[in-house]
Design goal:
heterodimer; A: alpha+beta; Rossmann fold; seven-stranded mixed β-sheet; five-stranded parallel β-sheet; 24 helices; 26% strand; B: alpha+beta; Beta-Lactamase; five-stranded antiparallel β-sheet; 37% helix; Longin-like_dom_sf (chain B); ER-Golgi transport (chain B); transport (chain B); Trafficking protein particle complex subunit (chain B)
């Protein structure tokens, strides 16, 4: 920047000069264009240089004046043997090649092939080319000739054209490829011509830079590492730069990296360390920028990290440590900028890899820079300002980058003149102290970082940056800004409750508020600071509390910071000007509380007309006692607000210590409780009652303070005051708390706040009663009368009944009950009536329940109903439930015993095949209620039959308790039954005697009568034996002495074979008889034989008959005596009457009454 | 910048659901006490690194609970461990250069075990500060065991 005026602030450590950050483009000069006067020239120039579309070949065009001087190339040294380089990179070299030395010079001439004076014009053109050549001394710049032609098209392969063209090239001594023709009137293809020419120019310039590079490389052989280390770097850098010029970025990266490697080989000393740092910074900048452009951010980051690691520890003298930090900081911020630019052009950053971290690092280094210069503040005061300025100006015009202005070109290991060195360093320090505004620098870097963190979704880092910014503002006494920034982040840190962080931020904020005499903030933060959660010295807290009270009564606070003295004035000034709020409202929910409140409703729900009872527990954890003037609660129904105000009148305090508790006076760490009682309004029943706000007032002072707790989460019950979300000052997280406040009452800690309660609506007055007559009888449908009585003032509707048998799972309840004549399953709801039950009336229904076993059973009757009232909520209209349980003890209605008898009516267990027997059922009534036996029948198993054609017996017998009755069934079996088998069942149909319950259910009996119940009893099991012989006896019913009678035995063979037998009739004293006394014969299979005897009774009375004896198979080895069998089937007695002497009318005794 | 004397400083914190610290442990093997200024700095570092935990634990390919070194700040390293529910995080901030990865992993695993056992206590509500001297002692014993 030679020639321009410099200001000392321009001197910036590690700054990337403009020429370096400039994007290198091939430089093309245009000569022969008169753009001001010639319209065509202007048009051509504009198309080339200004109207550039983004996809055009990157080029830099310049117009060349006739007298423009191109910097001549220096005469190259023939040998480098004795040459000692004075520095690494000259400050003017880059500018020269960027803006001054062209790669191609383009000469534009208006010349048509068919020009009349072609030869004259050609000569002019040749002269112009020569003149142009003359401007390049020792420069191998390419020259191109452009002919601007009027013709519309390029003539195709015209002999004249070809000849003239080659003529022209020869005369101008240019290659044929460097001759271009531009028919400028061909507007259609004009741009195409331009593009093609541009591509050709690019080729030319590329070859120029290629040649330059070749030239530089050619020096390398002459160099040696010991003397020319600097040149290795310089040449490599130049190669990189030219590569960049010809847009060969990969080559450029390679060359720059090599330059960096060469730089690292240079031995660093106190004299050249700064130069090395600066150049390293430049090369690193170039490498990283190219890598980012090549879309290789990983490599760029890696290179940068390597760069930082190398230079991080390279310390200069302590006097210049600030310079080192400044340079490092600059490196980070430059890299951050590069990264950011790469993101702007499409790179996607990550949450853990984005420019924010680099800006942040840069800011941290800037803070170190500030700290490093601070010790020298006094030393530099004695410096001569003018000499310093001169030196700084020189530093901006230095020949080599990064060299000290007081010893340019010095490459010795140690500074030549220590005195000058010291002075120079002092000047640098002076510059640092006077011209660098560190805070602005740091804050700007932090803001950059903050924006990046914000953009890349790192909220916590962002907040951390904000805190750092605020700290910087605090350090430069910019308290309002400090407070603004802290207030932005305090809510977040308050919710997360990292104690150390929060305490440090609060301390800073409080100090800032104090120092800037910001009354509102001072009071707010001061109150927050009082909390025992904040681990500060007790004495300090006390003085804060005192200060707050003073401030509230418009007095200056105590001197809280020992050092400063003019703060008092600031406060006074503020009071006089009156720039303060007279009303301060502090929202207590988010802040660290110095007073804690836990409201508790005594019940979760209150019944109809029950008093609502509310307790408010309060605990002050500030260091000193505190007084408030008013306490008020706000509910979601504002009607109740009036009941919950607490405003102790000053008078009450005089009354003595009884009211001490009632005052709003709080001692530290002493729990106080305020109680409120009120009645709920009728219209609020059935609704939630909720505390929405609690407010404490401190009204005594000119400045009034209101402390406000808000129930923020009405849906999330009890969350806002609970100790989870609040700062609880109970056992502190870290034991490092220095506050010596007496212990926290554990009782308070364990109180769980309840903020809502429910006002239960009144229950409708409806009674459900079940009427039944115990006991139930087994297998009966047991009637239960349901009475639903509506005693309320509203009618009820939608009445449904569910009966559930208890102690039984729902799915097994398959039994059904009977309602209104329909069977219904248990467990299902059944609508009882369609109509409503009006007030004062009742609904009566009878339900019949099946009684299936003798165990005690419980049935639950649930009746659901709704109240028919649309408007009122005080009564719970929704489905109301009434429940009643009935317990049923069942007994067996009958006791039945069975006996089987022989046809002779003798009880016998033996039943023979095809032989009739009698089943006798003896029925005893056990029921306490009279029962009516309707009929009594047997259902027989197969093979068992009635002996007589079956006629169902109807009894219709009324049985009272313990009454007995008998039933007889004559049966026989057709097949042999060896195992005991049941005969069948006895079915008794019965009902409760209507006469007994006549009065209780008159209406329902008409409909379906008393339910007829069936009870079944299993008949006894029998075995049926096979028999050989059946003897049927025929005998008159009675005999008469001395009158003969006929006894017939029909013997039936039951076997399938011929049955031989011997039959004998014993002699008897009672009878004389005639017949076969003893006979042997055989009965054919399944046939009968009859034996006839004529008996002549001798005596009267109950006389035994002559005994019949039958022996089967008499002549075989196993004769079978039939005595046992005959005993059962053959009568052995006969009633013999005396002889009738007088005729008396005779009544038969009945059926053959034969007793043994 | 350079370490003074032997030993290292450790700051261990368990962070709950709403990023609130629920247990803190400061442990140092240095003879000199640290200033309180450094304490809040270490909290700041630990707190800010929560951003990075979110990033690493949300990335799909990471199924490890132990996240290794997730952040570096000057001489401090932040290592992290995410509990199975990933709402509770363990952070260890330390300035020990020569500490084996295995012992850090073991430290976290053992802390996780005692934390899990502690949470089984029915009286303890999750994500609230742990106020148990027994837990504190156990954690300190683990720190002594694994952290040089």
């Amino acid at each position: 920047m030679l020639g321009t005026t410099v200001v000392p602030a321009d001197y910036e450590i590690g700054k990337i000069p403009d020429e370096l950050s400039h994007h290198p483009l091939p430089l093309i000069y245009f000569a022969g264009l008169n753009i001001n006067s010639n319209q065509t020239h202007h048009y051509v120039w504009e198309t080339f240089a200004n109207k550039r579309a983004p996809d055009r070949t990157p080029m830099q065009y310049r117009l060349m004046d006739n007298d423009c001087m191109i910097p001549p190339s220096k005469q190259k040294k023939s040998t480098y043997d004795w040459y000692v380089p004075k520095g690494i990179l000259k400050t003017n070299w880059l500018i020269k090649h960027l803006h001054e030395v062209p790669s191609v010079a383009v000469l534009c001439v208006e010349l048509d092939w068919d020009d009349v004076n072609f030869n004259t014009r050609k000569q002019e053109c040749v002269n112009q080319v020569e003149a142009l050549r003359g401007q390049f001394i020792n420069r191998s710049c390419r020259i191109a000739l452009v002919l601007l032609q009027k013709s519309l098209t390029i003539p195709i392969e015209d002999a004249m054209t070809t000849e003239r063209a080659s003529n022209l090239c020869e005369a101008c001594d240019i290659n044929a490829t460097s001759l271009f023709v531009l028919p400028y009137q061909d507007s259609q293809h004009f741009l195409g011509y331009i593009y093609r020419m541009e591509a050709a120019f690019f080729e030319l310039s590329s070859s120029y830079y290629q040649q330059e590079m070749k030239f530089i490389r050619s020096h390398r052989d002459q160099l040696n590492k010991t003397n020319h280390g600097l040149l290795f770097v310089r040449h490599q850098f130049k190669l990189g730069f030219f590569s960049e010029m010809r847009q060969d970025f990969q080559g450029a990266i390679k060359n720059y990296k090599q330059a960096y490697a060469n730089l690292m080989e240079i031995r660093s000393s106190l004299t050249n360390i700064y130069e090395i740092m600066v150049i390293a910074g430049f090369i690193n900048y170039k490498v990283c920028r190219l890598l980012f452009n090549q879309n290789d951010p990983r490599e760029a980051i890696a290179h940068f990290q390597k760069h930082i690691n190398i230079f991080k520890s390279k310390d200069e003298t302590p006097e210049l440590e600030f310079e080192h930090f400044a340079w490092l900081s600059k490196q980070f911020s430059i890299f951050g900028d590069l990264f950011d630019a790469a993101i702007a052009s499409g790179l996607v950053p990550g949450q853990i890899q984005h420019p924010g971290y680099y800006y942040y690092e840069s800011a941290l280094l800037a803070i170190k820079r500030q700290a490093a210069i601070e010790p020298f503040r006094e030393r530099v005061q004695f410096i001569n300002k003018d000499t310093a300025l001169v030196l700084i100006e020189e530093a901006l015009r230095i020949e080599f980058y990064g060299q000290r202005p007081w010893r340019p070109g010095c490459q010795s290991l140690n500074p030549l003149d220590p005195e000058k060195e010291r002075e120079g360093i002092k000047v640098l320090q002076y510059h640092e102290l006077v011209y660098i505004n560190h805070s602005t620098l740091i804050i700007n870097l932090l803001k950059d970082a903050m924006n990046q963190f914000k953009r890349n979704k790192c909220p916590r880092m962002m907040r951390f940056m904000t805190v750092l910014i605020a700290q910087q503002y605090y350090d430069v006494n910019d308290y309002p800004n400090c407070l603004t920034h802290l207030n932005q982040v305090l809510p977040f840190y308050r919710t997360e409750k990292w104690k150390q962080i929060l305490v440090s931020i609060l301390t800073t904020a409080f100090n800032a508020a104090y120092s800037s005499a910001n009354l509102t903030e001072f009071v707010k933060l001061g109150f927050e600071f009082l909390s025992s959660w904040i681990p500060a010295e007790l004495e300090f807290k006390k003085s804060i509390q005192e200060s707050i009270l003073k401030v509230l009564s418009l007095q200056s606070p105590l001197n809280l910071k020992n050092s400063e003295e003019n703060i008092d004035e600031a406060w006074q000034k503020m009071f006089i000007e009156g720039t303060y709020d007279t009303q301060i409202t502090i929202k207590m929910n988010p802040i660290v509380p110095f007073i804690e409140i836990k409201p508790v409703f005594s019940q979760k729900a209150y019944k109809w007309q029950e008093n609502v009872h509310l307790k408010l527990y309060m605990l002050l954890n500030a260091p000193m006692p505190m007084n408030f003037d008013k306490l008020s609660l706000t509910f979601d129904k504002s009607y109740y607000n009036q009941f919950c105000n607490y405003c102790p009148s000053p008078k009450s305090s005089i009354d003595g210590d009884t009211n001490d508790n009632a005052l709003l006076h709080f001692e530290p760490m002493v729990m106080k409780c305020f109680e409120f009682n009120f009645e709920a309004r009728i219209e609020d029943y059935g609704k939630q009652l909720e505390i929405t706000e609690i407010t404490l007032f401190m009204n005594d002072n000119p400045i009034k303070v209101t402390f406000n707790w808000i129930n923020e989460n009405p849906s999330d019950n009890n969350k806002c005051f609970s100790h989870n979300s609040c700062f609880s000052s109970s056992p502190s997280l870290t034991s490092s708390s220095t506050s010596s406040i007496s212990s926290y009452p554990p009782k308070f800690y364990h109180i769980t706040p309840t903020l809502t309660t429910f006002l239960e609506p009144r229950k409708p007055i409806v009674d459900l009663s079940l009427v039944n007559a115990s006991p139930a009888l087994l297998h009966e449908m047991y009637p239960i009368k349901i009475v639903i009585e509506n005693k309320d003032e509203y009618s009820i509707k939608d009445i449904s009944l569910t009966i559930v048998k208890m102690e039984e799972a729902a799915e097994t309840q398959t039994v059904s009950f009977i309602l209104d004549g329909f069977p219904l399953a248990l467990g299902t709801a059944q609508k009882l009536t369609e109509s409503m039950i009006d007030p004062g009336t009742s609904l009566i229904k009878i339900v019949y329940l099946p009684i299936s076993d003798l165990n005690s059973q419980r049935f639950m009757f649930s009746v659901l109903f709704s109240v028919n009232s649309a408007e009122s909520t005080a009564i719970s209209s929704g489905p109301n439930l009434l429940k009643e349980i009935v317990s049923i003890q069942a007994i067996n209605p009958f006791n039945i015993s069975f006996t089987t008898c022989t046809p002779l009516n003798t009880p016998s267990r033996v039943i023979r095949l095809m032989e009739p027997f009698v089943l006798k059922a003896d029925i005893t009534c056990l029921s306490p209620l009279p029962l009516e036996l309707i009929d009594c029948n047997v259902e027989l198993n197969q093979n068992i039959f009635h002996t007589l054609p079956y006629i169902p017996t109807t009894l219709n017998k009324l049985l009272r308790s313990d009454d007995r009755t008998e039933c007889h069934f004559a049966l026989y079996s057709e097949s042999q039954i060896t195992q005991e088998t049941g005969l069948g069942v006895l079915v008794i149909r019965w009902k409760k005697s209507t006469t007994s319950n006549h009065n209780s259910n008159t209406e329902s009996t008409e409909e379906d009568g008393c339910q007829i119940n069936k009870i079944k009893f299993t008949l006894p099991a029998i075995t049926v034996q096979n028999s050989y012989l059946y003897v049927e006896t025929k005998l008159p019913e009675f005999g008469t002495t001395r009158e003969s009678l006929l006894l017939t035995y029909n013997l039936a063979n039951r076997t399938d074979d011929l049955l031989p037998l011997s039959l004998s009739l014993d002699k008897s004293d009672n009878f004389m008889f005639a017949g076969n006394c003893s006979v042997k014969f055989s009965i054919p299979a399944k046939s009968q034989s009859t034996q006839l005897f004529v008996l002549y009774p001798l005596v009267c009375g109950h006389v035994s008959l002559p005994k019949l004896k039958i022996i089967l198979y008499p002549d075989t080895e196993n004769p079978i005596d039939m005595d046992n069998v005959l005993e059962d089937i053959v009568p052995s007695y006969l009633l013999v009457m005396p002889q009738r002497k007088i005729y008396t009318p005779f009544e038969p005794i009945g059926n053959a009454v034969l007793t043994k | 910048m350079s370490l003074i004397g032997q030993g290292s400083n450790y700051y261990f914190v368990i962070v709950g659901k709403s990023d609130n610290p629920i247990f803190e442990l400061e442990y140092t093997t240095k003879s000199t006490e640290k200033s309180s200024e450094n304490r809040n700095l270490s909290q700041f570092i630990a707190h800010s690194s929560l951003d990075l935990i979110d990033e690493s634990s949300f990335s799909a390919n990471n199924s490890n609970m132990y996240l290794k070194v997730i952040d570096k700040f000057n001489e401090y390293y932040v290592t992290a461990f995410v509990c199975a529910s990933s709402t509770v995080k363990f952070l260890l901030l330390h300035d020990a250069n020569k500490i084996e990865d295995a012992s850090l992993r073991a430290f976290f695993t053992d802390i996780y075990e005692i934390y899990c056992k502690f949470t089984l206590n029915t009286f303890y509500e999750l994500h609230t500060p742990i106020r148990s001297s027994v837990f504190e002692k156990k954690a300190l014993a683990l720190a002594k065991k694994y952290l040089p």
